[in-house]
Design a protein that fits this description.
The complex is a heterodimer of chains A (about 250) and B (about 220). With about 250 residues, chain A is an alpha/beta fold. Helices cover about 40% and strands about 25% of the residues of chain A. Chain B is mainly α. Chain B has helices at about 1-40, 45-60, 65-75, 85-115, 120-130, 130-145, 150-160, 165-170, 175-185, 190-220. The chains are: A alpha/beta (about 250), B mainly alpha (about 220). Chain B: Keywords: Amino-acid transport, Cell membrane, Membrane, Transmembrane, Transmembrane helix, Transport.
């Protein structure tokens, strides 16, 4: 889990810029994510954290700069882009499980339709993954029948089913009732231990301290500061970060 | 009452033509309507424009004009024939006009269904690596269909009733045509009239009930 386990980084962003109309949401972002690294992105609302995350699997396009994933510049569209996306898992704040499919089908859809995995094999793997996130007994239910925490764990299993090289988490616990936050964080901590490369937008300091290798503080579309979790939370270098931390620490 | 019994067999034969038209056109309209809506939401501008144009033109043209165009314009002037048998030819010209007409309504119903599917569903599908077509086919359209089963039922009911104007284009011996024909020879008969109304209601009412029931049963819980 230490940095630089491999020679080449998994993600390389160089001078990435992005606008929404007149709004400059990503400003000259330079960021690398190493293989096996767990990166926490933190910062005030509207700072561009989600956008940053979403550019990596190209759910958002960029205006300028370059993003290299696993040695390859992100493809523009088509089959190549679909393939890239299949290698980058994504877990959303609002879970986004396929509402008309059962839990099991949610997990097997990607492998069978994108990878062409045989159904019984995909089923078997889905059950293993659901077991791992503690939802195996709910496999035949529909998403709406599960609690938020359970749905989010299924979403993690769905991402894992593709054997991704990396998983992006965009505020995975923000939509959850407080008592369900930990069950999701526990699964994520387990993934981090197993060496999954993760980029996690979250304000959960406990998770950052336990699982992250690095914290990136983002505001106004810029990376303002980056450091190890301990350093960042106890000894932030910039006024913006200190100001932000004082606000989230009070509640 | 006697007329109804006397002309009953002819009327029944005519009514079967209505049912046959309805069944074929329903299937074709659902298929065509799905293709049209796929065009309308596709990322390719040319397809989107073509879909929008077809839908807006056809949907806003009176059905009788479409039928006339299909019989006179396409068949007589442009020489489009489906069969050497005049009856079959007329039948398929009517099918074509009525299917595409109903398809535009299917398309618009589906489009409003697509609008009920949250953005996150498509995003999650794309994030897993599904292509645009897979996302549409496996995630968006199944949810959209379930959201608009009842409106689709209304489209089918309208289609069934509209088969009675089919004769305008193709001189098919459908029930309404047989009815006018008997009225010409024997004078207006209330029993025949009511008999036909009941026959149509016997088909359309259950469709309304069934689609209403199905809509509830298949509703996607969120
Ligand atoms: N699709 C969009 N169209 C226009 N503006 C957008 C869009 N998505 C995001 N924005 C804007 O871009 C800015 C950055 O948004 P982003 O969601 O990346 O911030 P964030 O750091 O994730 O914030 P939060 O903590 O609230 O999730 C915000 O001002 C937001 O309103
Ligand atoms: Mg966000």
């Amino acid at each position: 889990m230490t940095e630089n386990g491999h020679a080449s980084p998994l993600v390389q962003m160089e001078n990435v810029n992005k606008h929404f109309g007149a709004l400059h949401v990503l400003r000259d972002i330079n960021l690398t994510v190493s293989r096996g690294e767990v990166l926490v992105v933190i910062g005030p609302s509207g700072g561009g954290k989600s956008t940053l995350c979403r550019t990596i699997n190209r759910l958002e396009t960029i205006d300028a700069g370059k993003i290299v994933f696993d040695g390859q510049v992100l493809p523009d569209e088509g089959k190549a882009l679909a393939k890239l996306r299949s290698e980058v898992g994504m877990v959303f704040q609002s879970f986004n499980l396929f509402a008309h499919k059962t839990i099991r089908e949610n997990v097997t859809l990607g492998p069978t339709k994108v990878r062409g995995t045989a159904k019984d094999q995909a089923d078997k793997r889905a059950m293993e993954l659901l077991e791992r996130v503690g939802i195996a007994t709910q496999a035949d239910k529909y998403p709406a029948q599960l609690s938020g925490g359970q749905q989010q764990r299924v979403a993690i299993a769905r991402a894992l089913a593709m054997d991704p090289k990396m998983i992006l988490f965009d505020e995975p616990t923000s939509a959850l009732d407080p008592e369900m936050v930990q069950e999701v964080l526990d699964v994520m901590i387990g993934l981090a231990r197993d060496g999954m490369t993760m980029m996690v937008v979250t304000h959960e300091m406990g998770f950052a301290r336990r699982a992250a290798n690095r914290v990136v503080f983002m505001a106004d579309g810029q990376i303002v500061e980056e450091n190890t979790p301990d350093e960042f939370f106890t000894n932030a270098q910039t006024d913006r970060a200190r100001d932000f931390l004082s606000k989230i620490l009070t509640h | 009452m006697d007329e109804l019994i006397e002309y009953g067999p002819d009327l029944l034969k005519g009514f079967l033509v209505n049912l046959q038209l309805s069944a074929i056109c329903t299937v074709l309209a659902l298929v065509l309507g799905t293709i049209l809506v796929a065009m309308r939401v596709s990322p390719i501008p040319v397809l989107r424009a073509a879909g929008t144009t077809v839908v807006n033109v056809i949907r806003n043209t009176p059905l009788t004009l479409l039928l006339a165009f299909s019989a006179l314009g396409l068949s007589d002037t442009l020489g489009l024939t489906f069969s050497d048998e005049p009856y079959d030819n007329a039948f398929w010209l009517v099918v074509m006009a009525m299917s595409i007409y109903a398809a535009t309504f299917v398309c618009e119903a589906l489009r409003s269904g697509i609008n009920t599917v949250p953005m996150g569903q498509a995003e999650a599908a794309r994030a897993v690596g599904l292509t645009f077509m897979q996302t549409l086919r496996l995630i968006i359209l199944p949810q959209a269909f379930r959201a608009v089963i009842a409106p689709l039922g209304s489209v089918v009911i309208a289609l069934i009733k509209n088969t009675t104007v089919a004769q305008a284009g193709g001189l098919l011996a459908d029930a309404a045509f047989v009815m006018y024909d008997t009225f010409d020879t024997t004078g207006v008969s209330i029993p025949i009239f009511i008999g036909l109304v009941i026959a149509f209601m016997a088909v359309t009412l259950p469709i309304g009930w069934f689609t209403g029931w199905l809509a509830k049963r298949l509703a996607v819980a969120r």
